[in-house]
């Protein structure tokens, strides 16, 4: 049983007589357990001395920095003054270590309007210094979650993550820096505040990364901390960082800020709402007027000077940054040249990844369509230890991510192909849907690749939609690699593959996935099968060695052979590898690309090892339909010794699985001729009259 000291602070109230709070922040000292709410008069944010004060429980309350009690247990202390005693409770450790598939990340429930409502009340002067707070919306993170420290832009409120609180709060211990409107702490003083927190966190958990998220001005702050602490494992995330302040389009206007008359200054927020490039702000002009209160004239003058010193200080030390860096760059940022700055940072920093959002403005964290946690996951930046592990660091897709993937990302493909799923029960009966697939893992799906792997998206999403099962697909490392040759890479389909569970195909990843009882999707034919030549549709190119059978038997996994057809109904392959190698210049490009790519099979393993990578030339057709048939499950439970020690038994099972896949393909090629809705036109009419596209009937199995 762990001792818990917990309190929630009602951070502010409505300015009228109503006592209903608009939002809350949590102030807590926790080893494990829940939080308890307290009235505002019992716990309040304070501007007391920063020298530190030890309460009767031995907890240091100083700038929201964690300290250790004499027992060595880790606690969390936030800079608050407690006007009354805090109840102690003994509770069980109920912190979860896993997230359910299609969990609720809350994205879309908050808007920029909520930010203005929070900020309006949080800016009330309290005479206090900069401090950390944890929004109650973040909730309780998963066990062993890394810390994320958010440093705000010039507003200093610290609430710019309001759209992302619930999502980030599941997988991070989120703390936001609040810089009061009347505070005049110089830039190096702010650096010291953040740095002290980082160093104490590192001392407490030296093997976990610390995430520093900086928005605009905050980007300068977190980069400066990273430059001063190269020995600490940091992941730095920059949202349109203000390191480009000296090249700002508004630079000529800043010297005039001190001369602005009071009446004219009240119009500045409306000008900024247009300049920031965010249509949401323009639509919220009544709220935008509050910007004049959030950043008063004298505060703006001070912060512009602060920003200038911040950019200068950080740029002079940027060469010392060793941290892993992710830059989010907006295409419609009219305050800063964020696109050019992202490229400069990428070339200046040793480990920098850029994602470009062409339709977003300067306030990217407050704009719709950019789910920060999705970007972190898709770029492979979420981890619990020194290196990112595709298996153990995986965060399952949320419901909002699934809906976007299903409706937007591959919505047209789903509409055009109208995937029909069939499976086989234990008694051998073929049924519509996925009812024949085992619920419990480990399960290994083994089947054929269609051209360019077009069937993979439909398969993974249908398992999520119908069975709420997360299928982890193993993919060629080149597919999941970073696109170094692209100067301004957008958040791409490759990133979404990582969000939806794809992992590089390696023996160790397959081992780890099966060991945690996952549902795993494996294509033994690999790149050779997905990039097949003309006339090779539905032909298997499998290796000679039955290694996946032996791996499955080691964990007693259930192997489900499956076949899929339909590529010849949506496109015709007109330029294959052999054709393209006859074209000058193009053939040289293919040779170079193939030589530089990662090779996961050697030439001794036959035709499947021929993995020359190229983009097939396709001629689209009026779409037909994709069909999937999952065969009768084959259990390896209890056969470990038989298969691992006797290669002949393993080979016999391997050939049986291959034969089953070929049988599934032959069955579908024959039965699809009986489908009255094989053509997209017929399916469209049926949908208009009867049901959604996933309910369009097919042939009777």
Automatic annotation (TrEMBL):
Name by which UniProt lists this protein: ESTERASE/LIPASE/THIOESTERASE-LIKE PROTEIN
Query: Can you list the GO cellular component terms from the UniProt entry?
Result: membrane
Mind listing the GO molecular function terms for this protein? diacylglycerol O-acyltransferase activity
Q: Which taxonomic lineage does the organism of this UniProt entry have?
A: Eukaryota, Viridiplantae, Streptophyta, Embryophyta, Tracheophyta
Q: What InterPro entries does the record tag this protein with?
A: AB_hydrolase_fold (IPR029058), DAGAT (IPR007130), Hydrolase_4 (IPR022742)
For this protein, the record's CDD domains field holds: LPLAT_MGAT-like
Superkingdom of origin organism: Eukaryota
Q: Which GO terms describe its biological process?
A: triglyceride biosynthetic process
Domain Serine aminopeptidase S33: from-to ranges: 197-367
Protein family according to the UniProt entry: Belongs to the diacylglycerol acyltransferase family.
Look up and give the organism this protein is from: Salix koriyanagi
Q: Which UniProt keywords apply?
A: Acyltransferase, Transferase
């Amino acid at each position: 049983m762990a001792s818990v000291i917990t309190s929630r602070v009602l951070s502010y109230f409505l300015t009228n007589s109503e006592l209903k709070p608009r939002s809350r922040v949590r102030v807590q000292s926790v080893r494990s357990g829940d939080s308890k709410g307290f009235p505002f008069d019992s716990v309040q944010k304070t501007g007391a001395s920063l020298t530190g004060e030890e309460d009767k429980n031995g907890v240091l309350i100083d700038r929201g920095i964690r300290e250790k009690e004499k027992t060595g247990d880790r606690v969390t202390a936030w800079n608050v003054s407690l006007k009354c005693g805090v109840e102690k409770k003994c509770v069980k450790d109920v912190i979860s270590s896993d997230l359910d598939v299609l969990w609720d990340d809350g994205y879309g429930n908050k808007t920029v309007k909520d930010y203005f409502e929070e900020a309006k009340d949080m800016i009330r002067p309290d005479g206090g210094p900069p401090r950390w707070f944890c929004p109650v919306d973040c909730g309780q993170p998963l066990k062993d979650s890394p810390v994320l420290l958010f440093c705000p832009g010039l507003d200093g409120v610290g609430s710019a993550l309001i759209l992302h609180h619930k999502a980030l709060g599941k997988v991070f211990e989120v703390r936001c820096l609040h810089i009061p409107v009347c505070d005049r702490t110089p830039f190096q003083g702010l650096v010291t505040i953040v740095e002290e927190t980082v160093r104490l966190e590192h001392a407490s958990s030296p093997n976990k990364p610390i995430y520093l998220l900086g928005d605009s001005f905050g980007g300068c702050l977190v980069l400066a901390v990273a430059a001063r602490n190269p020995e600490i494992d940091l992941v730095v995330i920059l949202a349109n960082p203000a390191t480009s302040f000296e090249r700002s389009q508004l630079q000529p206007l800043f010297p005039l800020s001190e001369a602005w008359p009071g009446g004219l200054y009240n119009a500045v927020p409306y000008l900024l709402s247009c300049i920031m490039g965010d249509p949401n702000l323009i639509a919220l002009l009544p709220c935008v007027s509050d910007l004049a209160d959030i950043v008063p004239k004298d505060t703006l003058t001070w912060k512009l000077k602060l920003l200038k010193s911040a950019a200068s200080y950080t740029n002079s030390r940027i060469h010392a940054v060793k941290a892993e860096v992710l830059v989010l760059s907006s295409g419609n940022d009219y305050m800063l040249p964020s696109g050019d700055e992202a490229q400069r940072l990428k070339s200046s920093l040793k480990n920098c990844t850029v994602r470009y959002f062409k339709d977003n403005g300067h306030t990217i964290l407050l704009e719709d369509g950019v789910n920060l946690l999705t970007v972190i996951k898709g770029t492979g930046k979420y981890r619990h230890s020194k290196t990112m592990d595709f298996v153990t660091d995986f965060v399952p897709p949320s419901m909002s991510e699934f809906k976007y993937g299903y409706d937007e990302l591959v919505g047209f493909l789903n509409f055009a192909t109208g995937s029909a799923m069939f499976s086989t029960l234990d008694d051998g009966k073929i049924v519509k849907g996925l009812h024949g697939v085992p619920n419990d893992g480990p399960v290994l799906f083994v089947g054929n690749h269609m051209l360019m792997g077009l069937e993979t998206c439909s398969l993974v999403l249908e398992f999520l939609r119908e069975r709420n099962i997360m299928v982890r697909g193993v993919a060629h490392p080149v597919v999941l690699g970073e696109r170094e040759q692209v100067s301004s890479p957008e958040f791409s389909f490759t990133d979404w593959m990582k969000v939806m569970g794809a992992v590089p195909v390696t023996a160790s990843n397959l081992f780890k996935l099966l060991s945690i009882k996952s549902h795993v999707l494996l294509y033994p034919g690999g790149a050779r099968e997905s990039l097949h030549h003309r006339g090779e549709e539905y032909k298997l190119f499998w290796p000679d060695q039955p290694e996946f059978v032996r791996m499955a038997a080691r964990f007693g996994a259930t192997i489900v052979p499956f076949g899929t057809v339909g590529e010849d109904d949506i496109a015709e392959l007109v330029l294959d590898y052999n054709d393209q190698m006859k074209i000058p210049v193009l053939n040289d490009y293919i040779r170079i690309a193939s030589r530089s790519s990662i090779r996961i099979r050697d030439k001794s393993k036959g035709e499947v090892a021929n993995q020359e990578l190229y983009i097939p030339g396709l001629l689209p057709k009026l779409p037909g339909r994709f069909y999937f048939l999952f065969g009768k499950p084959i259990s390896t439970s209890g056969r470990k010794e038989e298969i691992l020690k006797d290669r002949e038994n393993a080979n016999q099972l391997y050939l049986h699985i291959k034969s089953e896949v070929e049988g599934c393909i032959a069955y579908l090629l024959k039965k699809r001729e009986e489908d009255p809705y094989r053509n997209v036109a017929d399916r469209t009419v049926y949908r208009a009259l009867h049901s959604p596209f996933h309910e369009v009937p097919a042939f009777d199995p």
